[in-house]
Specification:
eight-stranded mixed β-sheet, alpha/beta
């Protein structure tokens, strides 16, 4: 008996810790996207594994993807957990629909919930017919969600549509003509002994737990993993990835072989498509289309130079892949020109920025020592200036020196001149491997050649 006494005492001491209620707080802050859904789903699974007494959604969001919102609602429903929403301070649009997917809602003293009308990408209005279809489908679905969670379904209609007045217990709380947005005081207002929407107003998270009967619970806040945190930021940096990808792709075409600019372009485009996939805007089909487009362009440059058709089709498919990745389309929504307005604007701005950057690089980059490392394959004297190296090259290989192309010039490549192998470039024409060449100019360290049969 004495042998078991210490173990018994240890179990008794640990009993309060085992019996204590656990509450998991899940931050729902920022735009609602598929990346946010993945984080919430994982946090719900961990809360279920811990046998948490409740989960609190600490919410501050302007809204987001309707598809991600529905997936979050389904995850909340299937979790089997007691879920509480704490609006702190805003639950607009998709946030309002997520909130009514939980049976218990509490509001911060200065907070608001509502305004869930569907909008197009970038926040612009969508065509009336399409809006009516989305409103009808969303209203029907979320009315049933609201009823299941003990909320007034008429509130959902007023959140989504401007044409829905709301009367609660004979009291009109909202007239038609505008979207319903409730302040904390309006949401917690008691009519006939029942709140309009929120169970109460709580200044802090501990106040929420106190009112929900969870005072003294062990509180754990779910934090995004490194991958999830990266996914949130990738969606914000996607335009920068597109800009870097296009610029570095241009630099790769202008320099022989496959080097650092090509690798940077590949990584930037991968992150661009990954960001839109995680945000729920694009599936893998956009990335596959992009890879196919690049393959056609490579065929045009390396295998069938001058054929034009593969390169032209590749450029068109490339633009299509970029647009497809940026289109924010609701499930089941028919295709229309309105869906292309924002992506075309974004792509146009990117093309303009790319043009500015490329004009700057075309003027400045050839004068740098970095560029000379990219396009020249000559011995480098660390004690000589770049101008000295260029002067020595011009003396060693004067204009008129003849040689032969060792690779396809597209328009750059490798050639043998006066018994030396160099990286060379034409004035835009393509030259097949084995063709006779003549050096026609030295330009900022670049060796410019032309096919002999084309003259100087």
């Amino acid at each position: 008996m004495k042998r078991w006494l210490p173990l018994l005492l240890l179990c008794l001491l640990a009993l309060p810790l085992v019996a204590a209620e656990q509450v998991v707080v899940i931050p729902v802050q920022g735009e609602i996207s598929n990346a946010r859904f993945s984080f919430i789903r994982r946090a719900l699974k961990e809360a279920a594994a811990r046998k948490a007494s409740a989960v609190v959604l600490d919410m501050d969001t302007p809204g987001g993807s309707l598809d991600a919102t529905k997936r979050i609602q389904q995850a909340l429903q299937s979790s089997g957990l007691r879920v509480i929403t704490y609006v702190n301070p805003d639950a607009f649009s998709a946030g309002a629909l997520i909130a009514i997917s939980t049976p218990e809602i509490y509001m911060a003293p200065a907070s608001a919930i509502g305004g869930a009308a569907p909008v197009g990408p970038g926040g612009q209005d969508i065509p009336k017919v399409m809006e009516a279809k989305i409103v009808s489908a969303s209203s029907g679905f979320y009315r049933s969600v609201a009823e299941r969670n003990g909320h007034n379904p008429d509130l959902v209609d007023a959140f989504i549509s401007k044409d829905k007045p709301v009367v609660v217990g004979g009291v009109e709380i909202h007239k038609q003509g505008s979207l319903l947005t409730l302040s904390a005081q309006e949401a917690a207002r008691q009519i006939n002994g029942k709140p309009v929407l929120a169970k109460g107003i709580a200044a802090t998270l501990p106040d929420v737990l106190q009112q929900a009967g969870l005072a003294g619970a062990i509180v754990t806040t779910a934090e995004p993993t490194g991958f999830e945190f990266a996914a949130f930021w990738l969606t914000r940096l996607a335009p920068l990835f597109l800009l870097v990808g296009v610029v570095c792709g241009w630099m790769e075409i202008k320099t022989p072989g496959f080097g650092l600019p090509g690798m940077i372009a590949a990584v930037a485009f991968f992150l661009f498509f990954l960001a839109h996939y995680l945000a729920g805007l694009a599936g893998w089909e956009a990335g596959i289309l992009f890879v196919f487009a690049v393959a056609l362009i490579v065929v045009e440059l390396l295998i069938l130079p001058g054929l034009i058709i593969p390169g032209l089709v590749g450029v068109l498919l490339l633009a299509g892949a970029l647009l497809l990745a940026m289109i924010d389309r609701y499930p089941g929504q028919p295709w229309s020109t309105a869906l292309l307005e924002r992506p075309l604007l974004n792509l146009g701005i990117t093309v303009l920025l790319v043009g500015i950057v490329l004009a700057f690089l075309a003027r400045w980059l050839p004068k740098t020592r970095f560029y000379s490392r990219l396009v020249l394959d000559t011995p480098h004297n660390p004690h000589a200036s770049f101008s000295d190296e260029v002067a020595a090259l011009e003396v060693r290989l004067p204009v008129g020196t003849e040689g032969v192309a060792l690779s396809i010039l597209r328009p750059s490549g490798r050639a043998e001149l006066a018994g030396e192998v160099h990286d060379v470039i034409t004035r835009g024409e393509f030259v097949d491997a084995g063709a006779a060449l003549r050096l026609v100019a030295h330009e900022a360290g670049r060796i410019v050649v032309a096919a002999v049969d084309k003259g100087v």
